[in-house]
């Protein structure tokens, strides 16, 4: 007999054993000789044998190490021989050692094991250790740990006849010896993960699989489903990842000729409970008896079995969650768990209990292998069970009238009130075994319940690569009969999984080569290859590989998915990053899904952190529960935010406000979503909302959470675009609208019951209506409340109101109602001393009504209302009225309270004008004085403000003489000259003082050449041309030449210095200066910052040193700012200071264009062509110099940096000034232009265009050029 797998072949024929190692020669053991062979045929043709060693006592057992570097041999003399892979002996040891091993326990001195408590058996059984069972073959057993560092050997002790397990190191150094275990049997298997060693123990009343630690101590067990003496365990085998323990058993022969059955059981552990998941019955036929059972060394869930009749079986197992699927009208979330001959069913719709507990369990006669829920969504609670004897048990819900004894509620003491199914029918499925009568356990796989009387199953075809789909239909036989095989559909391929779509009556079949076939079981057509389908996911196949690659149809969507589930419109997946992602499939394409899974910026609503290794079990329909199973087996219920919001939206669309409210309150979803989801629907169904909630506390909770923001746009954005209409009342605030609507509905339904909620609606408004709320409380004082009315008393209402509003604030508002009964009622609930407020209230009651209201309003600091009440108290209180106006600056309000022709109005106006005068608002003060008839005061105010036109008007109203007007005009002209308003001053002197000569001199001083010429010719004083005008324009021309020359010199010097500073900083940045650079002349210019230093870059450098300056006056701050931008060579910000100086130079030169333009016209008029040409040429040179220098001053990088000031080609004079370079208050300087006055400082810079388009073309061309360069 033989059995093959990936790395070796094991052939067992009595005493003949062959071990094959990959491409290495295999080892053959026959009796006591070792042979090596290079080839093995299917018929075991042994050729080219070579003896590599001989053992006189014979070999009983051999085992390769997991890394195949060592082989351990056990001889007939109970010795161990460790050899290399080339069969060179390393060491040899006796199995039976008197010593415990290197891991011997240390006794700390408080007793021996013999003196300790031994349970109900007492100490006597410990002293006598029974010998090994008669079914024990007596051969040693060897098993390696997964990493190959340790090996365990089980052998029968010669002294006691009982088995002991010893753990040896890789060098055959004894590590530990197991404690005496009565009834220990031959099976031995070390868990590949290295934690436990499995064996079996026959106890007086049961048969257990026991586990040892590496130190030889027992660590847990579970009981096999057999009575004592019924079966023996041949072998125990762990799969590659230590998740499944295979138990190979066979019946014990009670009679000589009796038949023995062979079994293979697969056990798993979850939540510290061992489950029997699969039971394979090989029958009693001789050819069906197992001779070898092996797990695949590379594929964790592949099991190989070899029978005596040369029948080889290969099983590929995978984990599957058996859960029901129902539509919205049939809400079930049942999950079935196989546990031997029981099916544990948990109804997650009603309760979530940790396994192995369950809602109810089904007890069957044989071990269960498969469970199938009905695929019809309306009957998804019904289930069918296929057991190891190929019998199908059908359980249905709702039709049974008698309680089924095979169905019991709960487990481990837990019970839940749910509707349980009952056993309706049991069918027998006949499996054809062929002529050789070889049994094929689990002949039917992928068991599916299609219809009430139709089942579907898949079996193996004649070839290993073929499968057959069977339709099993209920026949005419009585209950307990056979199912009729209605149809068998061959499939060219090995079907490894399937899924059913009950809506389209289609089944998707997955083949081992990855193909997906579509089988329409209603039409019984041959399965065809499934197309990729629409990219809009109208119908798609979802699949997950064992390497966590998630596919939709033939497109890989993600590569880190550990489990997935589809519910309604959502797809939920768990990932290796320990997150659970929930994405909507509505109107979604594959590209959008791929981008969503690969994106790092996933919306918070769709992503949730979870425990490491969690996997999805099921999603409860029409609920928000997502059931996850942890790696150790326990369950956890989470409420994924996406599922919660989707379910809340559904409830709100169906006007199920109560369910939505309770879910939101429980899961801490902001209650604003109740309104924001659909404002129009909410306002139309406010009464429905109140009646469904039917709780004053819940309604108050809703009020307190209201906010103005729209939570569907901020916190809970909808995953898809919604057609919800906008708010009907856009001008009204959201909170006010809800409060008003709900208050109206509550007053209509039952104002007594919802009294507290009505008060809350008043308080919660954007402007709290505390007076109205207090008035409603006051109205309750005279009413009696009966228990049937569900109302509240005035004291309870006031107490609740005090919970919402501060008591002092409420006291003030109650006082503002002028209702002293209400004031006393509120004061009694506060902490105020009656000795304080009662005298105050008594004093108020004695006052006249208007004065009483004035006193209360003044106490509450409601000065406008107090002013209104005080104005009604008569003239005797006008002085108090005026004092209140002055104290609180209520002049505008006071002027409205009295007619304009009354003395009170005049008095208030005068006070108002005095107030404006004190605030230096002279012009406004003058206007108010003029209204009140105080023309003298109005004249003084206008004189102070410089409003010479209004001042002359007031002088006229006062009846000033001509001389008085002339004196006033000269005074005003002097002030205007100080303000550099020479033209206006000239008008005053000419028209009111009749002094045109002085007016001409002022115009010459202010460089208003053309206006001066007009006056000279008006009064025919041509002599002034020679005495004053011509000398003034000649002096102005010389001053302009000098100034332009200085501007060009300064500009050139700053430009050259700027280029030097930039070059040095660039060198310092690139590290091109050597160590002696600091000793050179420009050492101080080396900056630690980048080559382009902006104001924002350097702001942090001076933030600490100037922290004290920031607290000083604005003058000191400007001074500090100027100090930072110093032109001193070597200063850190010298480049910025140079840019500032250059910008100032450009602005000053630009501002000269208008003045020079006017001067040139005067020079040309009087024949000074050469002087005019000289001045124009000087201005052109200055402007051209600036234009040529702009690109190298303001480089491209400097212009593209948004943090840099706007200077040069990218900005105008105004933008240059607003960029921060004139923060120090610097003003442009120009030369003195008048020989009469000797020149003065210029006003702040501003751009003055050429005022005469008919000026010189060259000057216009130059002006256009500079405008193009600077604007």
TrEMBL record:
The keyword tRNA processing applies. Residues 851-1014 form the ELP1 TPR domain. Signal peptide: none annotated. One of its GO terms (cellular component) is cytosol. GO terms for biological process: tRNA wobble base 5-methoxycarbonylmethyl-2-thiouridinylation. InterPro entries: A-sol_ELP1, Beta-prop_ELP1_1st, Beta-prop_ELP1_2nd, Elp1, HB_ELP1, Ribosyl_crysJ1_sf, TPR_ELP1. Keywords: Cytoplasm, Nucleus, tRNA processing. One of its GO terms (molecular function) is tRNA binding. The keyword tRNA processing applies. Residues 1097-1127, 1222-1241 are annotated as: Disordered. Residues 48-298 form the ELP1 first N-terminal beta-propeller domain. It is found in: Cytoplasm; Nucleus. Residues 1103-1113 have a biased composition (Low complexity). Residues 337-617 form the ELP1 N-terminal second beta-propeller domain. Residues 1114-1126 have a biased composition (Basic residues). Residues 641-844 form the ELP1 alpha-solenoid domain. It comes from the Eukaryota. Pathway: tRNA modification; 5-methoxycarbonylmethyl-2-thiouridine-tRNA biosynthesis. Residues 1023-1193 form the ELP1 three-helical bundle domain. Belongs to the ELP1/IKA1 family. Component of the elongator complex which is required for multiple tRNA modifications, including mcm5U (5-methoxycarbonylmethyl uridine), mcm5s2U (5-methoxycarbonylmethyl-2-thiouridine), and ncm5U (5-carbamoylmethyl uridine). The elongator complex catalyzes formation of carboxymethyluridine in the wobble base at position 34 in tRNAs. This is Elongator complex protein 1. It comes from Terrapene triunguis.
């Amino acid at each position: 007999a033989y059995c093959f797998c990936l790395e070796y072949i094991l052939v067992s024929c009595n005493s003949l054993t062959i071990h094959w190692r990959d491409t290495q020669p295999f080892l053959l053991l026959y009796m006591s000789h070792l042979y090596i062979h290079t080839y093995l045929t299917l018929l075991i043709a042994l050729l080219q044998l070579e003896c590599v060693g001989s053992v006189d006592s014979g070999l009983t057992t051999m085992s390769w190490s997991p890394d195949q570097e060592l082989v351990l041999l056990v001889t007939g003399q109970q010795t161990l021989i460790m050899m290399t892979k080339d069969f060179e002996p390393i060491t040899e040891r006796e199995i039976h050692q008197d010593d415990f091993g290197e891991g011997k326990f240390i006794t700390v001195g408080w007793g021996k094991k013999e003196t300790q408590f031994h349970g109900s058996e007492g100490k006597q059984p410990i002293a006598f250790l029974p010998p090994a069972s008669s079914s024990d073959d007596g051969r040693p057993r060897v098993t390696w740990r997964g990493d190959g560092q340790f090996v365990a050997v089980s052998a029968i002790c010669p002294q006691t006849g009982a088995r002991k397990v010893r753990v040896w190191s890789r060098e055959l150094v004894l590590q530990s010896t197991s404690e005496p275990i009565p009834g220990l049997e031959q099976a031995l298997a070390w868990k590949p993960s290295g934690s436990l060693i499995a064996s079996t123990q026959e106890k007086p009343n049961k048969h257990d699989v026991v586990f040892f630690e590496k130190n030889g101590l027992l660590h847990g067990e579970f009981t096999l489903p057999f009575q004592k003496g019924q079966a023996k365990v041949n072998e125990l085998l762990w799969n590659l990842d230590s998740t499944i323990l295979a138990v190979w058993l066979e019946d014990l022969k009670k009679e000589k000729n009796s038949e023995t059955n062979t079994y293979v059981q697969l056990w798993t552990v979850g939540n510290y409970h061992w489950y029997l998941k699969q039971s394979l019955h090989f029958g009693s036929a001789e050819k069906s008896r197992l001779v070898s059972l092996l797990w695949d060394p590379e594929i964790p869930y592949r099991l190989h079995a070899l029978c005596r009749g040369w029948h080889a079986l290969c099983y590929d197992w995978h984990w599957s969650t058996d859960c029901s699927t129902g539509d919205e009208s049939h809400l079930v979330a049942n999950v079935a768990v196989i546990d031997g001959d029981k099916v544990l069913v948990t109804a997650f719709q009603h309760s979530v209990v940790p396994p192995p507990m369950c809602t109810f369990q089904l007890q069957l006669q044989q071990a269960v292998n498969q469970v199938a829920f009905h695929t019809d969504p309306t009957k998804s609670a019904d289930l069918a069970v296929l057991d190891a004897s190929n019998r199908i048990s059908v359980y249905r819900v709702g039709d049974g009238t008698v309680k089924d004894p095979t169905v019991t509620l709960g487990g481990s003491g837990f019970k839940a009130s749910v509707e349980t199914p009952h056993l309706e029918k049991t069918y027998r499925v006949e499996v054809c075994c062929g002529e050789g009568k070889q049994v094929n356990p689990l002949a039917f796989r992928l068991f599916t319940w299609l219809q009430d009387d139709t089942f579907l199953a898949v079996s193996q075809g004649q070839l290993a690569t073929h499968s057959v789909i069977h339709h099993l239909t209920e026949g005419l036989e009585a209950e307990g009969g056979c199912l009729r095989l209605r149809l068998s559909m061959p499939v060219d391929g090995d079907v490894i999984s399937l899924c059913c779509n009950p809506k389209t009556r289609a089944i998707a079949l997955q083949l081992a080569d990855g193909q997906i076939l579509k089988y329409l079981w209603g039409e019984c057509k041959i399965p065809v290859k499934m197309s990729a389908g629409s990219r809009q996911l109208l119908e798609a196949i979802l699949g997950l590989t064992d390497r966590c690659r998630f596919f939709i149809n033939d497109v890989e969507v993600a590569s880190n998915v550990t489990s997935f589930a589809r519910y309604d419109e959502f797809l939920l997946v768990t990932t290796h990053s320990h997150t659970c992602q929930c994405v909507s499939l509505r109107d979604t394409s594959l590209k959008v899904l791929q981008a969503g899974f690969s994106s790092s910026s996933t919306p918070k609503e769709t992503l949730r952190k979870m425990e490491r290794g969690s996997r999805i079990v099921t999603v409860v329909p029409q609920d928000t529960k997502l059931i996850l199973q942890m790696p150790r087996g326990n369950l956890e219920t989470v409420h994924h935010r996406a599922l919660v919001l989707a379910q809340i939206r559904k409830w709100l669309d169906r006007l199920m406000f109560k369910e939505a409210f309770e879910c939101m309150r429980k899961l801490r979803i902001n209650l604003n979503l109740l309104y924001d989801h659909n404002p129009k629907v909410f306002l139309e169904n406010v009464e429905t909302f109140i009646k469904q909630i039917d709780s004053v506390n819940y309604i108050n909770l809703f009020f307190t959470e209201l906010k103005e923001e729209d939570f569907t746009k901020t916190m809970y954005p909808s995953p898809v675009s919604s057609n919800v209409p906008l708010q009907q009342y856009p001008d009204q605030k959201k909170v006010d609208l809800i409060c008003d609507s709900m208050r109206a509905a509550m007053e209509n339904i039952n104002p007594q019951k919802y009294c507290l909620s009505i008060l809350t609606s008043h308080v919660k408004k954007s402007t709290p209506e505390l007076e109205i709320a207090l008035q409603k409380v006051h109205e309750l004082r005279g009413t009696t409340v009966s228990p049937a009315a569900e109302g509240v008393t005035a004291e309870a209402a006031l107490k609740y109101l005090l919970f919402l509003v501060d008591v002092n604030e409420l006291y003030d508002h109650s006082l503002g109602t002028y209702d002293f009964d209400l004031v006393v009622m509120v004061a009694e609930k506060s902490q105020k001393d009656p000795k304080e407020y009662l005298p105050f209230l008594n004093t108020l009651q004695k006052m006249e009504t208007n004065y009483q209201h004035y006193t209360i309003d003044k106490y509450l600091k409601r000065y406008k209302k107090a002013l209104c009440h005080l104005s009604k108290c008569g003239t005797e209180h006008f002085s108090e009225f005026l004092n209140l106006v002055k104290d609180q600056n209520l002049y505008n309000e006071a002027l409205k309270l009295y007619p304009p022709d009354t003395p009170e109005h005049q008095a208030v106006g005068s006070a108002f004008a005095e107030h404006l005068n004190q605030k230096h608002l002279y012009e406004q003060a003058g206007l108010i004085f003029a209204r009140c008839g105080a023309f003298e005061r109005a004249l003084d105010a206008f004189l102070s403000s410089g409003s010479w036109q209004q001042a002359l008007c007031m002088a006229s109203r006062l009846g000033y003489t001509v001389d008085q007007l002339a004196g006033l005009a000269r005074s005003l002209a002097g002030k205007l000259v100080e303000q550099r308003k020479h033209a206006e001053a000239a008008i005053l002197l000419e028209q009111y003082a009749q002094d045109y000569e002085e007016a001409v001199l002022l115009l010459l001083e202010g460089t208003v050449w053309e206006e001066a010429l007009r006056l000279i010719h008006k009064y025919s004083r041509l002599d002034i041309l020679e005495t004053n005008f011509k000398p003034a324009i000649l002096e102005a021309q010389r001053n302009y030449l000098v100034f332009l020359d200085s501007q060009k010199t300064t500009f050139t010097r700053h430009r050259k210095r700027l280029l030097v500073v930039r070059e040095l900083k660039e060198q310092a940045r690139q590290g091109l200066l050597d160590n002696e650079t600091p000793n050179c002349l420009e050492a101080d210019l080396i900056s630690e910052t980048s080559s382009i230093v902006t104001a924002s870059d350097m702001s942090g450098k001076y933030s600490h040193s100037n922290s004290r300056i920031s607290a000083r006056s604005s003058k000191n701050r400007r001074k500090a700012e100027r100090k930072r931008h110093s032109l001193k060579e070597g200063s850190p910000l010298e480049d910025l200071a140079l840019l500032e100086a250059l910008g100032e130079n450009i602005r000053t030169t630009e501002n000269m264009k208008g003045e020079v333009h006017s001067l040139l016209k005067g020079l040309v008029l009087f024949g000074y062509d050469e002087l005019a040409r000289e001045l124009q040429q000087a201005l052109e040179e200055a402007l051209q110099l600036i234009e040529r220098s702009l690109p190298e001053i303001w480089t491209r990088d400097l212009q593209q940096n948004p943090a840099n000031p706007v200077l040069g080609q990218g900005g105008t004079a105004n933008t240059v000034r607003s960029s921060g370079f004139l923060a120090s208050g610097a003003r442009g300087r120009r030369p003195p232009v008048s020989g009469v006055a000797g020149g003065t400082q210029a006003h702040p810079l501003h751009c003055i265009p050429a005022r005469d388009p008919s000026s010189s073309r060259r000057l216009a061309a130059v002006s256009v050029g500079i405008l193009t360069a600077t604007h």
